[in-house]
Design goal:
The chain is of the alpha+beta class and about 500 residues long. It is built from 10 helices and 7 strands. Strands 1, 2, 3, 4, 5, 6 and 7 form a 7-stranded antiparallel beta sheet that branches.
Length: about 500
């Protein structure tokens, strides 16, 4: 029998169970505290990331508004440049017309010595004033024509030619002046052309002997009408040139605007594509940062759990935690954002479960350790000598020796349901040892010895070993003769 392993399951005494329940409650409270602390850290990191996202959005919005202001400023500058060109062209046309008026003023002063000096001076002052106003790009068609008319009125009526001579030459000269105005004059100033034509007809009818006075009077009216008609035609020509120039410029600007619009559309499309790429990159980077932050919260705890699980002989738990941890670090290293986020979520969910499992492993370790200590004390009280002890996986192995030389190797382990179990391997112990005759036959079987050890353990307030059993043990209550009963074994 000494060669067969002997087993005994051990129940936990109520006092020990209460202490163990208190330890379990403390560990659960510590576990909840750790979980709450990790949750606070994750919330703080999430709030920081949210602030950073808000700051990035505000910077992007400010940059967008700055670009919009710059674009609006460019458009305003282009519009102002266009308006400035228009004012310059209008000023140039007005200046040309004022030059014509000034030339007319010079002719009047030269050809009309009797013209009122005060009127000429007033016209000259008004001409200078109009030059200042035209320089500001103001529309001065009416004032310029009014000034031209005043000068025409100061011109002397033409001298009548000598009787019988010169009428045809005067009429031909006037008709040439009317023809020189050109057909555009008739188109732009049909009333003026009609008036000039009718006055020339009246002047032609007045040519001849005895009509010198009427001819001379009509001649001044005709010249005034031709001058006004020429000025009106010139004004329309200037306006036409301005309009043609404006149309050309408008077409050029529209073409430039279309080209600019296409360029702007292409630029906006490129910017939109770049913005989309940047947003995707920013989103991926944000996910990677979030995963890295969340890993930073749990990494230390996960590594500690894996290391402690190996110490407490649960390599499967250690492997699960390490694999979950490696899944996160691998995804982060490969910048696989979604995979990293999913992996860190898996690790976060696994960690509380692993910590709870680790607490149970620790409680089981403590239970085995306490049981091993109680066993060692009880064995020593029964005369055993403790020779060696070691931890082998999830078990303690204690070695003892009796004075007779018999060796006992006891394994303190835990069954799958958490029940402590004692396993004995005995070498060198005879089944029966008889004492001196005076003391009578002593039943010193291995079973009895270990039962006394168990009784000693049970007297403490921790553990209650059960019945010792082994392969081939006879049923309880069955008695069998002790080999060599009543005999003394020697040697």
């Amino acid at each position: 029998m000494s060669g067969s392993p002997k087993y005994s399951t051990v129940s936990v005494a109520s006092a020990y169970a209460r202490r163990e329940a208190q330890r379990r409650a403390r560990r659960e409270a510590e576990r909840r505290t750790r979980q709450e602390q990790r949750a606070r850290e994750r919330a703080e990191l999430a709030a920081r990331r949210a602030r950073e996202r808000t700051e990035r959005r505000e910077r992007a919005q400010a940059d967008l508004e700055r670009r919009q202001r710059e674009a609006a400023d460019r458009r305003a500058a282009e519009q102002e440049a266009h308006a400035s060109r228009m004012r310059q062209e209008q000023a140039a046309a007005g200046s040309r017309r004022l030059d014509e008026v000034n030339a007319l003023l010079t002719r009047v002063r030269t050809a009309e010595p009797d013209a009122p000096a005060a009127e000429l001076a007033a016209i000259e002052d008004r001409l200078a004033q109009l030059r200042e106003e035209v320089g500001r790009g103001e529309q001065l068609d009416g004032p310029i024509e009014e000034l031209r008319g005043r000068l025409v009125l100061l011109s002397s009526p033409g001298d009548a030619p000598q009787p019988g001579t010169g009428y045809d030459a005067v009429l031909a000269g006037l008709e040439q002046r009317l023809a020189a105005i050109g057909p555009d004059g008739a188109a732009h100033d049909p009333g003026g052309r009609q008036n000039c034509t009718e006055l020339l007809g009246q002047l032609r009818a007045a040519a001849g002997a005895g009509a010198e006075t009427r001819f001379a009077a009509l001649l001044g009216t005709v010249e005034h009408a031709l001058t006004r008609h020429a000025g009106t035609a010139q004004h329309h020509d200037d306006e036409e040139r301005l309009r043609a120039a404006e149309e050309r410029r408008g077409e050029e600007e529209r073409a430039a605007a279309r080209a600019a619009e296409k360029a702007e559309e292409a630029k906006e499309a490129k910017e939109a594509e770049e913005a989309a790429q940047e947003a995707a990159q920013e989103s991926r980077a944000a996910v990677l940062v979030e995963a890295a932050d969340r890993l930073g919260v749990v990494r230390g705890s996960a590594e500690a759990v894996a290391a402690e699980a190996r110490e407490l002989a649960d390599p499967d738990l250690a492997d699960r935690v390490e694999q979950a941890l490696h899944a996160v670090t691998g995804a982060l290293g490969g910048e696989a954002a979604e995979e990293a986020l999913e992996a860190v979520g898996t690790l976060e969910r696994l960690l509380p479960e692993a910590e709870a499992r680790l607490d149970e492993l620790q409680l089981a370790f403590t239970r085995r350790s306490d049981l091993a200590e109680a066993l060692q004390d009880a064995m020593c009280e029964e005369g055993f000598t403790f020779t060696d002890g070691s931890e082998q996986g999830a078990a303690f192995v204690l070695r003892f020796e009796r004075p007779s030389g018999a060796r006992y190797e006891t394994t303190v382990a835990t069954e799958a349901d958490g029940t402590p179990v004692l396993v004995y391997h005995v070498e060198g112990e005879p089944d029966v040892t008889l004492g001196p005759v005076a003391e009578g036959a002593v039943c010193d079987r291995t079973e009895d010895l270990l039962e006394r050890v168990h009784e000693a353990i049970g007297e403490r307030d921790g553990f209650l070993p059960g019945e010792l059993t082994w392969q081939g043990k006879p049923p309880r209550g069955h008695t069998r003769s002790l080999p060599g009963a009543g005999q003394v074994r020697r040697g």
